[in-house]
Amino acid sequence: DYSRNDYDIINCNSRKIVCSGFVDSHTHLVFAGNRSHELSMKIKGKSYLEIAKAGGGINHTVRETRNASEEELSRLAIQRLDQMLLHGTTTIEAKTGYGLTPESEMKLLKVTNELNNKHPIDIIPTFLGCHIKPEDFTGNNWDYIELMIQLLPEIKRLNMANFVDIWVDYGAFSIEESTAFLTAAKENGFDLRIHADEMENVGAAIMAASMGAVSADHLLKAEAISANAMADADVVANLLPGTPFVLMSNKYANFPMFRDAGVTVALSTDFNPN
């Protein structure tokens, strides 16, 4: 009915296009500092895990982020959000994961929720307290998992996150450790997302299916049995090709394998300081 007047007229001259807003379903929005100094190590062939063991990677960003004020973190994140919006992104998922103490993770969740209230982009917060066990934590992985589990009721009470996430992989958390954390998260009413099988095929994608996760992300080393399990459980394969690209790797997720298995596939940026 073209006689109706409840529509907007948009001038698409000057090489413009009108389309639906992009949804970026895997970002690490709130952090301080950057890791551009690691580029030379990548060029020399150092792997992600080798750089991390040398004091770089996530722990470097954790140190920078813990030292930043809420105001600084918000200022930096707004700059990033403005660039995302300029390129057509109107909704993002935003993970924590660069605090890795109860206090710092809550700070990141607070900043993320405040940004959602004041920026045009819709932001869906995810609690990624189990990104890795931080270098200054004196206990073992199980001790750290328990510390993060203790945060879940308060995060839920304050409605600060829609999802929880955990990195299930070689060099991060095991299947057993991750199952304990994700079980507690489900009991607290969170939906689940998983960093899965990026470095090695540890069975994380299959675990995502068994736990009823919304998505399994990365999946560089996932195999056909993983894709079939995800299809059966309706788990989204969230593929992040920008990650191996910036790591100078030639190993990408096997999109045809997921497509042929009938898995719903999403494509996201994995925006992060790497």
TrEMBL record:
This protein's name: Imidazolonepropionase
GO CC, any one term: cytoplasm
InterPro entries: HutI (IPR005920), Metal_Hydrolase (IPR032466)
Biological process terms in GO annotation: L-histidine catabolic process to glutamate and formamide
GO molecular function: imidazolonepropionase activity; metal ion binding
Keyword list, A-Z: Hydrolase, Metal-binding
PANTHER family from the UniProt entry: IMIDAZOLONEPROPIONASE, IMIDAZOLONEPROPIONASE-RELATED
